[in-house]
Write a structure and sequence with these properties.
The complex is a heterodimer of chains A (254) and B (594). Chain A is of the alpha+beta class and 254 residues long. Chain A has three domains: 107 residues, Tetratricopeptide repeat domain (Serine Threonine Protein Phosphatase 5, Tetratricopeptide repeat); 71 residues; 60 residues, SH3 Domains (SH3 type barrels). Chain A has eight helices and seven strands, in the order H-H-H-H-H-H-H-H-E-E-E-E-E-E-E. In chain A, helix 1 packs antiparallel against helix 2, helix 4 runs antiparallel to helix 5 and helix 7 packs antiparallel against helix 8. About 6% of the residues of chain B have low confidence. Chain B is elongated. By secondary structure, chain B is an alpha+beta fold. Chain B has five domains: 128 residues, Immunoglobulins (Immunoglobulin-like); 118 residues, Sandwich (Immunoglobulin-like); 112 residues, Sandwich (Immunoglobulin-like), CATH 2.60.40; 31 residues; 114 residues. In chain B, strand 27 and strand 28 form a beta hairpin. Chain B is built from eight helices and 32 strands. The interface between A and B is large, with 48 and 31 residues.
Chain lengths: 254, 594
């Protein structure tokens, strides 16, 4: 009897969660249908509502971001389109279709972006850590991290062969270091502080105020790296090293 | 004999007005026979520009056999240079009597000169002796003949080279042609002196013609020709094929050559000669019928395929050969772009097999790929051209070819041989890809979850603490009587491992000591008695009290005594590892009953 009540409680606790999942899926299908009928504005509304309910639970969705990017593109909003494609890229960086769409958007921008090519080893390393999902690398790193302590504990307990414990510590330390470096790179990639410019033309100043020298101008849809923030101004960096301060309100974080 | 001619020439020249700068006319002989010829030379000394005869070229009683041949000679005597422009005609008399060559108006540059009339006496027969051929281009010793025979004691003198000695004639295959009909032009050198060098000085642009060089690298062959009583060495020195591109009277312009003539034994003389210009009449083509290919000449057309039975998708090569007399270079379109039942892959350019520019062959290799099954027909290929000999348009056709197409190519229709000229896909427009459908994916990052972070940071401490706890509790348990009682056998086994290690190290004494100690320790744990107090006879008594089999007790005591004995004997029989198993066996039996 006790067991039955436990299951019932468990079921009732998770039912709302399951129901909300079902609800989001139907909404997603509905939005896709609207997109298919070329009702982009309606589709956008539905996608955005899904996004809101996901964000409440700290969830992200590749498909949702991808479709949001497509919808904004159809509505001729290049900056928003890029924002969502970039968000999607952080989840699945090596997706081919995403690559095509992003290159199409970049080709339509006013600012031509400099592509800095990586050397062979950097490119190789990048390919490895991008082909794993962040969670996989997190789990693997944690696993080997734990392994190290388990082997140390085995050594400490005195019940096990010391030699085997030492081997275990060595191997798991090595694997931990490998996977942690991959995890860290992937983490940096996923949580990089970058933003998309949302102003038609934006002046970049040498100091965090409008009275300083205008260094250069950037245009809508450009991706910038963010640095320090002071008084609502943010220090931005372009891939070729150009940097300056812009008003934070014209920038949306990816 | 030669001297006589020279004297004669000198005498005639005495009668002519002598002038340093000007134009004069003279003849080679003043008395000739009806069968002889004479050379009329108009010579301009230090004049500007080429000579041009303004008067009509009609010499009463003479016909022009050769010329006008033009020439330029430059001579430097005692440092002063003089340039002579000459025009010469070879004339043959038509009647006897005293004939007069009238005075001629000659234009040289801007000046106009008038020459004196010349009287020539013509008698029956031949009076001019046939001059022996002086020199052969291939006989460098011919001058010696002169030296020994003619002027026996006199040294060879520089010989004057007149226009009569070297001239170039233009010969054409036909003087009346149609537009597009090939004309073979030959430039023929006539010479009486040996020629050591020959080069083209200036080739004009043949206006109104498409001109092609032929046989450029061929060796020049000399023949002997008798012209007007003189023996000449003749050779075709330059050939061209001309295709007139427009109708009307067209002039083949003169071509200049530079020759090095062997004037005497030691010195060559540089001579420039121009060929005579030649006028040819080009007739326009009559109104053309439909499908006229633009070709003029006479042609043949043939078509063949490499196979008459094929599969769908398999390539067939259609070979079309057009050959004949005429210009095929500019002719290209032979087949329609589309053929019913076939995909047509045309070669980028057809091959021209040119043996002779007058006789060309052009080969088209067209790849056809059948697209459906059945009896497909390659239509006949038609060629319409103008034949200038027949003076009409002629149509030639090949027979149609039927190809039997059955089944498909198994390997997916790969075109063998020529690659299709098209085929690469070109991007017309760029657009974003279609949206993602299906179930909504949800991604949450473990690193963002605080519970994961807490777990990861707490886990090591927990594990280490647990390990430490195990260690401490193990230490504690070692002193616990009950614990030792239950774990006695496993402790014993651990001790046996240590014994085995010693045995492998061949430490006999320690081996036997620790083996006996392991057994005693087992009983110490099991019976909860201190290790030091326990001896084998005590154990024996306790076991007897507990009612253990006598044989087993005996086996045990014998084993322990043996071990003790061995451990105290300095020269023991070595390590016996099998004793470990024996000890284990005995203790196992006791463990079961205790």
């Amino acid at each position: 009897m006790k067991r039955v009540t436990f299951y019932l409680v468990f079921l009732f606790a998770f039912l709302p969660l399951y129901a909300s999942t079902l609800n989001l899926n139907t909404q997603f299908t509905k939005a896709n249908k609207l997109y298919n009928e070329k009702k982009y504005k309606e589709a956008l509304k539905v996608y955005n509502s899904i996004k809101k309910s996901l964000e409440k639970k700290d969830l992200k969705s590749f498909k949702l971001y991808f479709n949001l990017g497509c919808t904004y593109y159809r509505l001729n909003d290049i900056a928003n389109s890029r924002l969502y494609f970039e968000k999607a890229k952080r989840i699945h960086p090596l997706n081919k279709e995403l690559e095509t769409n992003l290159s199409l958007i970049v080709s339509k921008l006013k600012d031509r972006e400099k592509n800095i090519k990586d050397g062979f080893f950097v490119a190789f390393f990048k390919k490895i850590y991008l082909s794993f999902s962040l969670n996989t690398l997190t789990i693997l790193s944690i696993l080997f991290f734990f392994m190290i302590f388990i082997f140390i504990a085995m050594l400490l307990s005195g019940r096990f062969d010391k030699k085997k414990s030492y081997y275990g510590i060595g191997v798991s330390l090595l694997l931990f270091l490998i996977f942690f470096s991959l995890f860290y790179s992937r983490y940096q990639f996923t949580f990089a502080k970058e933003g998309i410019v949302f102003s038609q033309t934006l002046e970049v100043f040498s100091e965090p105020n409008t009275s300083s020298t205008v260094l250069f101008k950037i245009h809508k849809g450009t991706k910038v790296k963010e640095g320090e923030e002071i008084n609502g101004y943010v220090h931005i960096y372009l891939p070729d090293g150009l940097n300056g301060w812009i008003d934070k309100q014209y920038l949306k974080d990816i | 004999m030669k001297r006589a001619i020279t004297i004669l020439l000198m005498i005639t020249s005495l009668f002519l007005p002598l002038c340093a700068k000007g134009v004069r006319a003279y003849v080679s002989f003043n008395r000739i026979g009806l069968n002889d010829t004479l050379t009329l030379t108009i010579e301009g000394e230090d004049v500007n520009g080429e000579l041009e005869i303004l008067s009509p070229l009609k010499f009463n009683g003479f016909t022009i056999v050769g010329g006008p041949n033009s020439g330029t000679s430059i001579s430097i005597v005692n440092g002063s240079m003089s340039k002579k422009e000459t025009l010469s005609f070879v004339l043959a008399p038509t009647k006897t009597g005293t004939l007069t060559i009238p005075s001629l108006k000659v234009k040289a540059g801007k000046d106009v000169f008038t020459t004196e009339p010349i009287k020539v006496e013509v008698v029956k027969g031949s009076v001019v002796p046939h001059r022996r051929n002086r020199g052969n281009a291939f006989d460098p010793f011919s001058n010696f003949d002169d030296f020994f025979n003619d002027d026996f004691f006199s040294p060879p003198r520089p010989r004057k080279i007149s226009l009569e000695d070297i001239f170039i004639r233009t010969e054409v295959s036909s003087k009346k042609v149609y537009v597009g009909e090939p004309v073979l032009v030959k430039f023929v050198l006539f010479t009486t002196v040996p020629i050591t060098q020959l080069a083209l000085k200036e080739v004009p642009s043949f206006q109104g013609f498409l001109a092609y060089d032929i046989d450029t690298n061929q060796r020049i062959r000399f023949n002997t020709t008798i012209l007007g009583g003189k023996r000449y060495n003749t050779a075709v020195i330059y050939k061209k094929v001309l295709y007139p591109t427009k109708s009307g009277d067209l002039v083949i312009p003169p071509v200049s050559f530079v020759l090095n003539a062997q004037a005497d034994f030691f010195f060559g003389k540089r001579v420039i000669r121009k060929s005579e210009p030649l006028r040819i009449r080009v007739l326009p083509l009559p109104p053309a019928p439909d499908g006229f290919s633009g070709l003029v000449g006479s042609f043949d057309i043939q078509a063949s395929v490499d196979t008459t039975s094929a599969r769908v998708g398999q390539s067939i090569t259609l070979k079309v050969v057009v050959s004949g007399k005429g210009d095929l270079k500019s002719f290209d379109k032979i087949l329609p772009d589309k053929l019913d039942g076939f995909r047509v892959f045309k070669p980028s350019s057809a091959e021209i097999k040119e043996k002779d520019p007058l006789h060309q062959t052009k080969v088209w290799n067209i790849v056809l790929v059948p697209v459906r099954e059945g009896e497909l027909r390659i239509p006949s290929v038609k060629l319409v051209y103008f034949d200038p000999l027949a003076e009409k348009y002629i149509t030639k056709t090949t027979g149609g070819i039927t190809v039997n197409v059955k089944g498909k190519v198994e390997t997916g229709g790969v075109v063998v041989g020529q690659q299709p000229s098209g085929g690469t896909v070109t991007l017309l427009n760029r657009d974003i890809t279609y949206i993602k459908t299906g179930r909504l994916d949800r991604v949450f990052y473990l690193v963002e979850n605080k519970w994961v972070i807490i777990f990861v940071s707490v886990f090591p401490f927990v594990v280490l603490a647990f390990a430490f706890f195990i260690r401490v509790s193990d230490e504690k348990k070692k002193n616990n009587v009950e614990y030792r009682k239950t774990k006695a056998y496993s402790f014993f086994k651990q001790r046996l491992k240590e014994v085995r290690r010693l045995g492998k190290k061949k430490k006999a004494r320690e081996f036997y000591q620790s083996l006996s100690k392991a057994i005693i320790s087992y009983f110490s744990d099991k019976l909860s008695k201190p290790n030091i107090e326990l001896r084998i006879d005590e154990i024996e008594n306790i076991l007897k009290e507990k009612g253990i089999d006598e044989n087993l007790i005996k086996q045990l005591t014998d084993f322990v005594e043996y071990c003790d004995f061995e451990s105290y004997t300095p020269h023991s029989s070595g390590v016996k590892l099998e004793l470990i198993d024996e000890a284990n066996e005995i203790i196992q039996k006791i463990e079961r009953v205790l």
